[in-house]
Amino acid sequence: MEQKRYAVAVDGPSGAGKSTLARAVARELDITYVDTGAIYRVIALAALRRGVGPEDGPAVAALLPELSVALRHGDDGEQRMYLNGEDVSADIRLPEVSMYASAVSALPAVRAYLLEMQRRFARERSVIMDGRDIGTVVLPDAAVKIFLTADAEVRARRRGLELEQRGTPKPYAEVLAELRQRDWNDSHRAIAPLKQAADAVLLDTSALDFEQSKALMLKTIRERAGL
Ligand code: DC
Hints:
The protein contains nine helices and eight strands. It has helices at 18-29, 37-50, 57-63, 95-104, 108-124, 134-138, 152-165, 172-188, 210-225, and strands at 7-11, 32-35, 69-73, 79-83, 86-87, 127-131, 144-149, 201-204. The strands form two sheets. It has a five-stranded parallel sheet. Helix content is 49%, strand content 16%. It is of the alpha/beta class. It has one domain: P-loop containing nucleotide triphosphate hydrolases (Rossmann fold), CATH 3.40.50.300. A hairpin with a 5-residue loop joins strand 3 (69-73) and strand 4. The mean pLDDT is 94.
């Protein structure tokens, strides 16, 4: 029997654990995980490489028609990002790309350019998609909407640990300041700001470890999607 198709939207500030949790949940439910932040990061990387300021709307918009952005999943289920045919999955994680991504994602031309790509993905298969505006703009009819958050200090500590493990450590104070700056940018932009959808379930993982957060997320999804 064919399984029913459904979408899970996961939104929240950076460092809330969206991607790690959504990836684990996708594996458990055998659905596709889509990290939409990665798509904005590809545009950011393109701007960075061409020396285009990320806040320069007209210049970034002029760049878009020259770009081919593709999102594919490998046999291992991992999402990979391509810019004009080049696999940029590693480069888009460079720390300098994060701030650029936050800035380019505030540009209406960029959001419009990427909207259909994200919707098309969700039409073709069951997905768990994470980002900032998935439940509010990209997939307003998603069967399940989760707003995942945690205190800024907890998120900064987690991010610091992640950077350390990647071999690019950074002082805690710096990580926290950058995270607060991105929170502010992402929730104060005029278009598709980060905010909880009215029908989203709020999950605060400040006091939860990974396994507890995952269990809570799975329970929420199974209940809401009627699995
Ligand atoms: O989740 P991330 O840190 O990889 O996202 C990078 C930036 O992209 C983030 O600062 C906000 C933006 N973004 C967005 O505006 N909308 C999304 N759906 C996903 C990410």
